[in-house]
Write a structure and sequence with these properties.
The chain is α/β, with parallel strands linked by helices and 357 residues long. The protein contains eleven helices and twelve strands. The chain binds 5'-O-[(R)-(carboxyoxy)(hydroxy)phosphoryl]adenosine and zinc ion. 5'-O-[(R)-(carboxyoxy)(hydroxy)phosphoryl]adenosine binds next to helix 5 and helix 6.
Amino acid sequence: MIILGIETSCDETAAAVLQKEGDRIQILSNIVSSSLELHAKYGGIIPEQAAREQIKAIIPVITEALEVAKVRDEDLDAIAVTYGPGLIGSLLVGVETAKTLSRIWQKPLIPINHLIGHFYANWIADSPKFPCIGLLVSGGHTDLVLFSDHNTYQYLGGTRDDSAGECFDKCARMLGYAYPGGPKISKLAALGNPKAFTLPQPMSHSKDLDFSFSGLKTAFAKLLEVNFIVKKGGFNKTTSSWEQTPLIENLEEKDKQKIYDLCASLEETIVMTLLNKTVTAVQSNRIEHLIVAGGVAANQKLSTTLKLKCKQLGVKLHIPPPSLCTDNGAMIASSAFFAKEISNPLDLQADPNLSLS
Ligand code: KG4
Ligand code: ZN
């Protein structure tokens, strides 16, 4: 079975062709085009501009995915597409393109919830067993679910305000870095001492499996204020761009070390918060498999910490390679191999507010 997966929920335009033979899922092509460089100029993603870039990129990206896979449209068994959640303009580009191709090529159209899609990156070259706990850590979501089978899950808890990814992104922004901030914080953190600063571990004593990361952002901002004179950047109307020199570039060596320590302490706090609730979910449900998904799962500190803990607990941990943690079309095609639903191409509507709960 060969499926084309299309993903356009945020700034990326992505398409991938995957093949399933028996239990084995193989990537034939996986193309991701991003407009991040354009957005860096504005300090963040501008939804209308992202959608305009995606309109230009979608056909070349799909064409390239088919060419690299050496697959013709008649070889496809189905087309899968993300229909939510995400930015409405961006979702529409993928959904309307998939609907059109499905009609023209006479192929079934499979709608995929982006959040479920992230989990299915774990079924490419791996096969987690049910029941399993799923930890989703993407840019907009931090959720824990209990899967009893494919596409059958119970929502256990999630963030009450900001996601862990948002916390990484906004703290990086305070240091003068554009989206996505997670990889930048992580790079600086590698040079720092995670015990140097004490940050609050949000909701660590709550009995539920919910998270909260907004207070952590505030605590980080306060520590920055106390330790450094923060030079605030802003939008320059003359050059029409976001201007902020990364704070670290103007600091002396001893102060640079404080920034590394601050980033390491932030990363440690986020990782420990995620770890503690995930372990509670695994133990209270007596689960032997844990699947982790979403952009923040690309964080090395998170993956090594989870690996160590899972080894102690005798739990099998599944995390996709970093390139399959962030948004891509391969995870969408992978989900489609297990999906039950097929859409009428004339009826499918993008849903920006789709969730797991
Ligand atoms: O799943 P994703 O690519 O997009 C959404 O569906 O939101 O996740 C993006 C998020 C951003 O918050 C980004 O900063 C974070 O994933 N991220 C990381 C790393 N790589 C991406 N966070 C921490 N460490 C990383 N290495
Ligand atoms: Zn995503």
